[in-house]
UniProtKB/TrEMBL annotation, chains A, B:
UniProt DNA-binding residue ranges: 45-64
Pfam families: TetR_C_1, TetR_N
Record flagged with keyword Nucleotide-binding: no
Keyword Oxidoreductase: no
Upper taxonomic lineage: Bacteria, Bacillati, Actinomycetota, Actinomycetes, Kitasatosporales
Designated name of the protein: TetR/AcrR family transcriptional regulator C-terminal domain-containing protein
Source organism of the structure: Streptomyces actinomycinicus
One Gene Ontology molecular-function label: DNA binding
HTH tetR-type domain boundaries: 22-82
Biological processes per GO annotation: negative regulation of DNA-templated transcription
InterPro entries to which the protein is assigned, alphabetical: Homeodomain-like_sf, HTH_TetR, Repressor_TetR_C, Tet_transcr_reg_TetR-rel_C_sf
Alphabetic keyword roster: DNA-binding, Transcription, Transcription regulation
Length: 236, 236
DNA sequence: CGGTAGAGTCAACGGCGTTGGCATAAGAGT
DNA sequence: ACTCTTATGCCAACGCCGTTGACTCTACCG
């Protein structure tokens, strides 16, 4: 078997598999995304991916060091899609907000994949590009370096943490997800008011709000705070 | 085998295993936490847990419907420990802050377990108790129901999302974690200033800040915002 | 138009969650 | 104190899983 994985750029011969497909990192990652969507976040297995590709499972080890390596490549793909779907306007607050939402929705577009990768930090190219972009927006907007780094840290971790949390909820099977959402109208809405007065009093509001993500609310709070600090620093 | 799991309260006979241990849900959950700590977040297996308990793996199915059910019980235990370590003072902002930090640090105290459970919502008793507590603090502080629910939602999801994110980082093996932290002094600090001017300019600040959690900063931002809204509503 | 080594295949290993059938001893009822 | 019932733990087995080493074949280099 492969002593070490051949980097994609150095790959020369493209021998088709028995079933005729010609493999590539790109094809494998995209097929993995499809398998994840169809079989859930725990449904990506070497055998299944091999079958989906029309190749022997062990062939994957010619392209990735193991399933863990493949997982990181999937995460990098999600981050890349977020960056591609975003464009700068020059208005720092709007740009940051849009970038955060782009990252969030890129992950939510592949919830099963996101649940697998969102808490991994890889240091791969597209991830670094996102970091450079965020820091650039903040420093160009006039934040001093210390404030920019502090805000960058809060921004990126907040976005990734919510991407993981919300993706985890979406990645459940359809029935499990429905059960979870209904929990606010079934379990929580029926708790006795004597023991749980506050939940009982707000049950209707909870059922309306909890199925949505809190990310936009928290993100806006963070950006409002940053804008206020920037304005007051300019005045003072 | 067990058609269905016998609830812990209805359990009568406590027959010791061949190796002499007397099982219980509590013992199993606590042993599972130990196994997770020793073998990592993917190291909890039915066979290993059975060995650690001195019991056959299949015996676990007398207590839990499957490994997934056990996982939820572990999450419930973490939430319970958070609630136990917290006490109210009556000052809403301080109480909320302390509760958030209690949840966060309860999860981080068992990072391998947290990585497994933080994004699950179970609707079990201790979890409901936490929800009731938070809503109680907010409504007693004078927030109208709509604002209380909005803030509750942001608060709990923020806390769980960061618990999961930060636990994920801590749950890596010691060497992998060290490698990740050093990435800010190795990879990021050495990126060429021509291609990555903003990262290069702030490399030292990044290396100092990134290994810590952004949770307290974001939590305080959220609570500051809430306090300001409450004060202005009182004035208006 | 060979020779070579890289890409795909095959078979196997040990470990996983889970199940059905079975032995046995704890506790209820007398 | 004795029996009876059945909850509880054990065993063996099933079909998955990731991964590996030895292999075959074929695309490309010269």
């Amino acid at each position: 078997m492969a002593k070490q994985v051949v980097p994609e750029s150095a790959r020369r011969r493209r021998r088709p598999t028995q079933q005729g497909t010609v493999l590539s990192e790109r094809l494998i990652v995209h097929t993995a995304l499809r398998v994840l969507r169809e079989h859930g976040s725990t449904g990506l297995t070497a055998r299944r991916l091999g079958t989906a590709l029309g190749a022997d499972p062990s062939t994957l080890y010619r392209y990735f060091a193991g399933m863990d390596d493949l997982t990181r490549a999937i995460g990098e793909e999600l981050m890349g899609q977020a960056l591609d779907s975003w464009s700068a306007t020059g208005e720092w607050r709007a740009d940051l907000r849009a970038l955060g939402l782009a990252i969030h929705s890129s992950y939510l577009a592949h919830p099963q994949a996101a649940a697998l990768t969102a808490s991994r930090v890889t240091g791969r190219p597209r991830e670094i590009a996102v970091d450079e972009t965020i820091l650039g927006i903040l420093r160009t907007a006039g934040f001093p370096d210390a404030a920019a780094v502090r805000l960058y840290h809060a921004f990126i971790d907040l976005s990734l943490a919510f991407a993981a949390l919300d993706a985890g909820a979406l990645a459940l099977t359809e029935e499990a997800r429905a059960t979870d959402e209904e929990m606010w109208t079934s379990t929580y809405a029926r708790l006795p008011a004597e023991s749980y007065p506050h939940i009982a009093a707000t049950a209707r509001l909870l059922a309306a709000r909890m199925p949505h993500s809190a990310y936009p609310v928290v993100l806006d709070t963070l950006l409002d705070d940053a804008a206020a600090r920037l304005a007051s620093a300019r005045r003072g």
